[in-house]
Amino acid sequence: MRFSICMFLFICHTILAFTDEYNMQSQYTESQRKEFFYSCLENNKDSCNLLIEDGVPSAGECSAKTTCMILARIYEIADKINESLPYYAKSCNAQILEACFNLALAYESLQQYADSKKEYEQSCHYGFMASCYNLAMLYVNGLGVPKDMKKANRFFMEACSNDDGWSCYSLATSYRNGEGFKPNRLKAQELFEKACKLGIQDGCKEFKILHSAEFSIIVPHIPNNKK
Q: How far apart are CA 189 and CA 196, in angstroms?
């Protein structure tokens, strides 16, 4: 999750304020709870569980634009995925596309692939390219849908055209291996190069392999039989 320091501090302050606003009886000082927040969001499961046990706002009380996302993350780190769902759903319903993506990820981790597909489709449709990539991967792996490389490639193509590096890499792989397309080494090379330029190191490696292969073709010697 990508938050600026100022946004992070604002969210922490907002959540901690609920203790007084909703008369939550905390057994910890505000300073201790802040430490738990910092530790929790650095993936400390025990700190997240301490916060939850001490009392956090419900999905009905949190702000869809700010605090719901961070509270959902707290439940996720605490390995309480089911409890994170209503928080992500509230933010998703407020058109926070990253929340829709995270909701889809949570459903996928619970192997609820139909729900996951629905949320990926929604956020992909509105331009969240990571959702398009993950939707394609459902079709690649046949998770909740039949395996279908042609459909997968359509989503890879959409995301690659919007500069999603892993989608370009996956599309290049499909062209190279002839998965859903006729094999096309030149197209694969072009897409591996694009993936490389978008920061995908595996794309750089594959581009070099295909590019070097172009110049290693041995032209057979044709003897001159003229006398």
A: 10
